[in-house]
Write a structure and sequence with these properties.
The structure holds two protein chains of two kinds. In chain A, about 35% of the residues lie in helices and about 25% in strands. By secondary structure, chain A is an alpha/beta fold. In chain A, strands 6-7-8-3-9-10 form a six-stranded mixed beta sheet, with helices on both faces. In chain A, strands 2-1-4-5 form a four-stranded antiparallel beta sheet, covered by helices on one side. In chain A, α7 links the parallel β7 and β8. Chain B is of the alpha+beta class. Chain B contains 20 helices and twelve strands. In chain B, β8 and β9 form a beta hairpin. Chain B is extended and about 105 Å long. The chains are: A alpha/beta, B alpha+beta. The interface between A and B is medium-sized, with 28 and 23 residues. The structure holds adenosine-5'-triphosphate and magnesium ion (MG). The site of magnesium ion has 4 residues of chain A, from α1.
């Protein structure tokens, strides 16, 4: 399915796509106080695939990612302009509640941040507050399937009541992923999910992402070109707050349109 | 390349500076230890001085005296009516019990002095005892009320040391007139006593001379008219001192009003020496000996402080000593101090009223300040927008934390008493005033604790769709709880020790009942301490110290709770 026509493109007039994009951003400008961090970003992101954002540090990857689940709302000085649509609906519309939005757009952060509670409660918290389980058995089932999908079940099955903070870094990151998928999101945002992990843990997470791709729309920020090439089907390159180029990963890595993309990928700056 | 050489010189540089750095570190440690030592010794000094003063209050001398519940004085017509029984002449009964112990006391003034051994207020507890149990009427009971505070202090040796010297050789007594006895012992029998008196006289003479010297010093700088007056005083002191020195040399010593009292305990009597030589004493029989026959078994009691300088007369001391010897006085745990409210009589005063008052006040403070403080902190930290208004509020909260507490008292007086007409002296008002005072402390501590919760926890919760409130109450608050609790308890401990604002709203009154509700008149422990500390009688001193001990214990309990809760709720993240 990677070889299908790319729906991710920078242009405003999208070519006839087989599928409508999951996330669609138009003329997104983000300001931190007076400082503008993103300039006129237009981007379509397709469902059931992995899209990676690459670009030098400070170019606005995280900022854009956090626009998609309105996490930027929690920063007082942050102001977002433009349209972002999820399944064709404007997520910045007045009647959209960020709480509901975030339940369907999950997020995994750069540093694993489990709650200082038991492993079980970490995963169960989301389903509990959203009322996804009607009884304790159902809740345990959700916890188990989430942990299984995150590839952590076998390691923690017999110690679900131990604190989540007692796990290793890689395990914590998978726990956090399990926590995110426990609320059955449609989109999962990952901000450098492997930057704090060793190669083996990274490989496991990458495997997991590849696996999750079949059911979710995954958007990932990464600093590793190799990782972007390995796991993502689409890639978007940001530079100085602007989206320079976006397209199928293969094309971006082998035949970029823009010189800056070429330079960045070949390591000439960044 | 230059790299290795450079790193070598760097290493040398570091090595050269190393001793200096270690010395600095050592110095710092030394300062730290010195500071801690200083703090500990200051604390030890405080505890020691308070402890040594206050512990004597925890035990007290009680009577253990047979008392006839004479029906004629309680219920002469045998009505068995509680109202009649309540009007019985219990004070008279107590006085009779004392008279029975010393039947030879006749004169009115002597009787009054004897009855002063037990405060008149004791009749109240005796009445209650009889009213609650009328069957006792007509029987003999044990009278167990506390001894008068002055006598209690005397027996504890706090008024003047009670020094007994065992007599040597037989002592012979003969009556010279009605109340005067002549005691004769073997030559030298009274040498120690005489030595002691002489010693004291010399000390007194020295003190007078010292004073004369000091006056002379000052005289040089004084104006002429003043100098003349002072010269007269110096001369007077010098003559006085010389006279005392002269008198100290005499073989026969006439005890005067500035000398210690010498009491001879002989055949169960007490003779107060007026004149003594090495083998003979003449003196007044404070308590007549049972027999005048010679006896080996005698001892002398020297009370260094002269009689006119203390509140216990020699006569009363003799009575107390006799009661003690007979087993009619017992030293035991002072339960009154822990079960009674304040009283005019030190022996009947307790800390319980103030303690209950403090607890009620603190409860009101807690109920008002803790929820408001914590919720305000949560709102300001998590929900309020950052703008001029919130900055202004923040500055004001910090200022309020530093406002002297008496100002809060004035505010309470103006608002709660004058505008809202709440009752004076009530724990509810005290609690509200202290709550105003504690609020800023709780808010600041809680905000700091909330701020210290890592933002990643908030992001995690928000990221899976928790609302702001859910994030705060499910995740932030549990993590901030130890800090919030510590701050809150420290604030409350401060409120517990606060005096000034309570003075303003009338919690300083004399309150003889244990408060029953948040609106009944009450006082608080620190105010009670303040009240007792400003009373002049000696016995209040030790009660003040005892109250301080209890207040400190309460503080320790509160602070230990804070430590315990912090450990219990502390979590890693
Ligand atoms: N909370 C904030 N307040 C002010 N400016 C911010 C804030 N967060 C980000 N910025 C600014 O916005 C710009 C983009 O930041 P962003 O975090 O999106 O970069 P990034 O591409 O994720 O970088 P990195 O790869 O280092 O994570 C940067 O210049 C940064 O300084
Ligand atoms: Mg980033």
């Amino acid at each position: 399915m990677d070889t299908s026509v790319s729906p991710a493109t920078q242009t405003t007039d999208t070519p006839s796509a087989p599928e409508a994009p999951k996330v669609r951003a138009r003329k997104v400008n983000v300001f931190y106080g007076n400082k503008q961090a993103l300039f006129d970003v237009n981007l379509d992101i397709s469902d059931r695939s992995v899209t990676s954002f690459i670009g030098p540090s400070g170019c606005g990857k995280s900022t854009f990612l956090r626009c998609i689940n309105r996490m930027n709302d929690t920063i007082d000085i942050c102001r977002v302009e433009g349209d972002i649509h999820l399944d064709g609906k404007d997520i910045y519309a007045r009647d959209v509640d960020p709480v509901i939005l975030r339940a369907s757009v999950g997020m995994v952060f750069q540093k694993p941040n489990p709650f200082p509670k038991s492993i079980f409660d970490n995963v169960a918290y989301g389903p509990r507050i959203h009322g996804l389980a009607s009884n304790p058995e159902e809740l345990s089932e959700i916890v188990e399937t989430s942990l299984r999908r995150a590839g952590l079940w076998t390691e923690v099955a017999d110690r679900l009541d131990e604190p989540g903070t007692g796990l290793s870094g890689g395990q914590q990151q998978r726990l956090v992923i399990a926590r995110a998928i426990a609320v059955r999101p449609e989109v999962i945002l990952m901000d450098e999910p492997c930057s704090a992990l060793d190669p083996i843990a990274t490989a496991r997470i990458e495997e997991l992402i590849d696996d999750l791709r079949n059911n979710y729309c995954i958007i990932m920020v990464t600093h590793s070109m190799a990782q972007a090439a390995r796991v993502s089907q689409h890639t978007a390159f940001f530079h100085l707050g602007k989206l320079v180029e976006a397209g199928p990963t293969e094309q971006i890595f082998t035949n970029p349109n823009d010189k800056r993309t070429q330079d960045y990928i070949t390591g000439r700056f960044g | 390349m230059t790299e290795p050489a450079k790193s070598l010189s760097t290493r040398a540089l570091i090595a050269a500076s190393l001793p200096r750095r270690y010395r600095a570190e050592q110095r710092f440690r030394l300062y730290g230890r010195a500071a801690i030592l200083l703090a500990i010794s200051a604390l030890a000094l405080l505890l020691f001085s308070v402890g040594s003063q206050g512990f004597s209050t925890f035990s007290i001398y009680h009577f253990n005296l047979p008392l006839q519940l004479d029906a004629r004085l309680i219920d002469p017509k045998n009505t068995a009516d509680p109202k009649v029984i309540a009007k019985g002449r219990y004070r008279k009964l107590i006085q009779k019990a004392l008279s029975d112990a010393f039947p030879k006391v006749h004169s009115r003034s002597d009787k009054r002095a004897l009855y002063a051994l037990s405060t008149g207020l004791n009749s109240v507890s005796l009445r209650n005892q009889v009213v609650n149990n009328p069957d006792l009427i007509g029987s003999e009971i044990r009278y167990t009320a506390p001894l008068s505070d002055d006598l209690d202090l005397y027996l504890k040796g706090k008024i003047t040391p009670r020094k007994f010297y065992k007599g040597t050789g037989a002592l012979k007594a003969s009556a010279t007139n009605k109340n005067t006895l002549e005691l004769t012992g073997k030559p030298g029998a009274f040498d120690t006593l005489i030595q002691h008196i002489r010693q004291k006289r010399l000390v007194r003479a020295e003190r007078l001379e010292d004073r004369a010297e000091k006056l002379l010093e000052r005289l040089k700088e004084a104006r002429k008219e003043v100098a003349e007056v002072q010269q007269v005083e110096v001369n007077r002191l010098k003559i006085l001192a010389a006279d005392i020195r002269q008198k100290a040399k005499n073989n026969t010593i006439h005890l005067d009003k500035n000398d210690p009292s010498v009491l001879i305990n002989f055949n169960q009597g007490f003779i107060k020496a007026a004149e003594l030589s090495d083998h003979q004493i003449t003196g007044l029989a404070l308590l007549a000996p049972t027999r005048l026959e010679p006896s080996q078994n005698w001892r002398s009691l020297i009370l260094d402080s002269p009689e006119r300088a203390r509140r216990v007369t020699d006569q009363q001391a003799a009575w107390a000593e006799t009661l003690l010897a007979r087993g009619h006085l017992k030293r035991s745990f002072n339960s009154i101090f822990f079960t009674h409210a304040d009283s005019r009589e030190p022996e009947l005063a307790g800390i319980a009223g103030a303690m209950v008052g403090s607890i009620l006040t603190l409860m009101a403070t807690m109920l008002a300040a803790v929820p408001i403080g914590i919720l305000a902190a949560i709102y300001l930290e998590e929900f309020a927008p950052r703008n001029r208004l919130t900055d202004f509020i923040e500055v004001n909260i910090n200022n309020l934390a530093a406002v002297p507490s008496i100002i809060f008292g004035l505010l309470g007086l103006a608002v709660f008493l004058n505008i809202f007409h709440m009752p004076r002296s009530a724990p509810i008002v005290g609690g509200l005033v202290l709550a105003l005072m504690t609020l800023p402390v709780i808010i600041i501590a809680s905000r700091a604790a909330i701020k210290a919760v890592p933002p990643s926890i908030r992001e995690a919760a928000l990221g899976i769709g928790a609302s702001k409130t859910q994030t705060v109450f499910d995740h932030v608050l549990p993590l901030a709880a130890p800090g919030i609790l510590t701050g809150t308890i420290i604030g409350l401990a401060r409120a517990l020790g606060e005096t000034a604002p309570l003075l303003m709203i009338g919690m300083v009154a004399f309150i003889a009942d244990i408060p029953k509700s948040l609106t009944s008149p009450a006082t608080a422990m620190p105010v009670q301490i303040y009240l007792w500390a400003s009373s002049s009688e000696r016995s209040w001193e030790s009660r003040t110290a005892a109250a301080i001990i209890i207040l400190l214990l309460l503080m320790i309990v509160l602070n230990l709770t804070a430590v315990f809760l912090r450990h219990k709720f502390e979590r890693r993240w």
